[in-house]
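Memo to structure team: turn this sequence into structure tokens by end of day. - J.P.
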Amino acid sequence: MKLNIRKARERFSEVIGLASVKGERIVLLANNKPKAAIVSLKDLEQLENAPFEKARRRTQIRRIGKIREGIRMKGKKIDSALTLGNLCEERIEKLSGRD
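Reply from structure team:
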């Protein structure tokens, strides 16, 4: 939802309710240009935690790579481990918006 700052000020309680209760994301406009946003606490937490989640996923991928390498060094078949690694990498790319 996009809303002029002046109108948002007039309807402040309603705007806060939309964000907090309904999860609506409100973009505040000044001269028809986006200036700020009002989001729920849940959305804010997700935005703040996104870099940590991405780092955690990358760490998991590195661990899987080390496990795969260990299996490969033992001369064992690693098709399933390779597939798992590829799936994880694809998932990370999708979640990070790089696909």
